[in-house]
C-alpha cells in the first residue's frame, strides 16, 4: 500500500520534496475519485431519474487521459513498468548498470520527443480554440496531459539516471 509522504517542516525545500514525492499519485487519486463519483452520479441519473448527464462521458474521457499519463509517470517512479530482464540478469553488475543507463537514455529521448509533439499539438488546439461538444471545455485541457505526463516521466527518469551514474562511479549496483 502506498503511503503519502507528509511534510515535516515548513521550509520551501520540504514542501518541494513533498510535491515531488506525491504529484503523480495526487493526480491519479483526483482523477480516480472524480471518475468514480461522476460515473456513479451518471448511473443514478440514468436508471433512477431516467435522464442522462450529457457531459459525464466527456469529462470521464478527459480524466482517463490524465490518469494514463500521470499513472505512467507514477509507474516509472515505482519501477512498475513491464520489462524483459533475461539478458540483463545474466550480465555482470557493472554491465547491467551500463545497460540500464542506455535504456534510460533511450526512454528519456522517447519522452522528450513525445513532450515536444504533445506540446505542439496542444498549442495548436489552444490556437484553434477547439472545444469539447458536451462541456464546451477547451480540448487542450485533455491534450495537455501528454506534455505534462511526459515531463513528469522525464524528471523521474533523469532523477534515476543520475542516481545510476552516481552508483556506477561508486562501483555499486
Task: Summarize, please.
This protein is an all-alpha fold and 173 residues long. It has helices spanning 12-47, 56-78, 86-89, 93-128, 140-143, 145-170. Helix 2 (56-78) packs parallel to helix 6 (145-170) and helix 4 (93-128) packs antiparallel against helix 6 (145-170).
Key traits:
173 residues, mainly alpha, 75% helix, 0% strand, elongated
Description:
The protein is mainly α and 173 residues long. The chain has 6 helices and no strands. Helix 1 packs antiparallel against helix 2 and helix 4 packs antiparallel against helix 6. The two termini are 26 Å apart. 19% of the residues are buried.
Unreliable stretches (pLDDT < 50, length at least 5) are none
Give the total of beta strands. 0
Topology order in helix (H) and strand (E) letters = HHHHHH
Mean pLDDT: 88
Strand content: under 5%
- The helix tally amounts to 6
Q: Give the structural class.
A: mainly alpha
Characterize the biggest β-sheet. none
**Which radius of gyration do the C-alpha atoms yield?**
20 Å
The helix fraction, in percent, is over 70%
Overall 3D shape: elongated
- Termini distance? 26 Å
How would you summarize the topology of this molecule?
Elements: H1 12-47, H2 56-78, H3 86-89, H4 93-128, H5 140-143, H6 145-170
Amino acid at each position: 500500500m502506498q503511503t503519502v509522504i507528509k511534510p515535516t517542516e515548513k521550509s520551501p525545500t520540504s514542501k518541494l520534496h513533498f510535491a515531488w514525492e506525491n504529484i503523480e499519485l495526487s493526480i491519479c487519486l483526483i482523477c480516480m475519485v472524480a471518475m468514480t463519483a461522476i460515473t456513479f452520479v451518471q448511473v443514478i441519473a440514468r436508471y433512477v431519474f431516467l435522464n442522462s448527464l450529457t457531459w459525464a462521458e466527456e469529462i470521464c474521457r478527459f480524466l482517463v487521459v490524465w490518469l494514463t499519463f500521470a499513472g505512467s509517470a507514477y509507474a516509472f517512479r515505482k519501477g512498475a513498468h513491464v520489462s524483459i530482464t533475461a539478458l540483463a540478469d545474466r550480465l555482470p553488475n557493472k554491465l547491467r548498470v551500463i545497460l540500464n543507463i542506455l535504456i534510460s537514455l533511450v526512454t528519456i529521448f522517447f519522452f522528450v520527443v513525445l513532450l515536444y509533439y504533445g506540446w505542439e499539438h496542444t498549442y495548436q488546439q489552444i490556437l484553434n480554440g477547439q472545444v469539447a461538444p458536451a462541456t464546451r471545455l477547451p480540448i487542450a485541457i485533455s491534450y495537455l496531459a501528454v506534455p505534462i505526463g511526459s515531463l513528469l516521466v522525464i524528471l523521474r527518469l533523469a532523477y534515476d539516471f543520475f542516481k545510476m551514474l552516481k552508483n556506477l562511479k561508486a562501483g555499486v549496483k
